[in-house]
Amino acid sequence: MLDLKHPNLGTVLAYCTLGPADEIARVERAAHNRMRKESGWTGWRVAEVGIEDEEDDLVRMSVRCEPMPNAYAEPLDLIFLMDALGRRRSPRLDAFLHACGIRERCDDTREIQGRFFATRNGAAAVSDFAPLDRALS
Predict the structure, then answer these.
(1) How many domains, in total, are found in the chain?
(2) Computed from CA positions of residues 27, 124, 129, 77, in that sequence, does the dihedral angle turn out positive or negative?
(3) Are β-strands 116-119 and 129-130 bridged in parallel, bridged antiparallel, or unpaired?
(4) With a threshold of 0.85, does the pTM exceed it?
(5) From which domain of life does this come (predicted)?
(6) Pairwise CA distance, residues 124 & 79, whole Å
């Protein structure tokens, strides 16, 4: 087991060369997660979009997102509420659409599928959405 509290370069190189692959992958994920906390941004691809009717003339839009291949993150599920015509919607939904590159009106959820964007802090606020290049820089 690699001592992560006091490693030196020689120990790390020897471990990465000779150590078990699953342990090396665990160390790589830990390092990536630590760096992600520093940069804060993770890249995502919209995999699936679903629409369900809710009470009070509202519609729930569920967005399933897959992390970028090197992100070491679990899939992300985003939920947005809006009226049936899409006129009354949250600034958070507008931020998500803008991050996906949709500047104008979105009439069909198929326009969102396959798009890329970035988030931080679990995508809780408007400022937590950005274009994908934010996660790549």
Answers:
(1) 2
(2) positive
(3) antiparallel
(4) no
(5) Bacteria
(6) 10
Res 107: pLDDT:
73
Residue 3 located in a structural domain? no
Q: Under DSSP, is residue 14 helix (H, G, I), strand (E, B) or coil?
A: helix
pLDDT of residue 118: 95
Q: Please give the residue range of the domain that contains residue 35.
A: 9-39
Single-letter residue type at 82? M
Cα–Cα distance, 10 to 91 (Å, whole number): 50
pLDDT in tens, 18-75: 778 888 778 777 766 665 555 688 999 999 999 999 888 889 999 999 998 877 788 9
Six token digits for residue 121: 């802090």
Contact 45, 66 (CB under 8 A): yes
Question: For residue 20, is it within any domain?
Answer: yes
